[in-house]
Amino acid sequence: MEKAKVIELKETILEDNNADAQVLRQELKAQKTCLMNLMSSPGSGKTSTLLALKPYFEGKIKWGVMEADIDSDVDANTLIEAGIPSIQLHTGGMCHLDADMTRQGIRAFDRAELDFVVLENIGNLVCPAEFDTGANFNLTILSVPEGDDKPAKYPLMYEVSDVLVINKIDALPVFDFRKDYVEACARRLNPQIKIFYISAKTGEGMKELADYLLEKIQEVNA
Question: Which family would the database say this protein is a member of (predicted)?
């Protein structure tokens, strides 16, 4: 008896996207623009971290932010009001961005004038980790109130991230957050991951993170 032919659509979609992401990286390299994919769950402090980085970037790089959300333009307007060039990307219900969506957003900027573009991805620890956006590196934020078990529960996010930023460390006295545990889990998944502890609210740790990012941008754009 003849059996039905099975086509793994997700696998095909991911393969096509990975190829397109490589093309986008080459396009950005030619423009000398570094792209960072910023991921996390909702409320971890993505936008507040970008705002806290602004003083360290001023006079050193030209940068802009693509804010991706299912709806609303709250975060993009917040950044614009702070003087950070930003555009809003609406995904129409999709929980992630892929390489072509990212390309569409970048085209809204004058790339020749930007050294660094941040894609603030949809707040989600699952879907965004599956799709290569064409970024030069991935950074994920984990906030202390979320708990230290997220790398164990959402391993792919930490496998694909080059940098882990643990935010809201000013709340450490209130929460049972095991720094050694979260570091061990993250490094078991990705031995090369860089880990920073910050408080976007108080500014603690921001200089160290900013210095790393500036060095990374220079390295990518060399």
Answer: Belongs to the SIMIBI class G3E GTPase family. HypB/HupM subfamily.
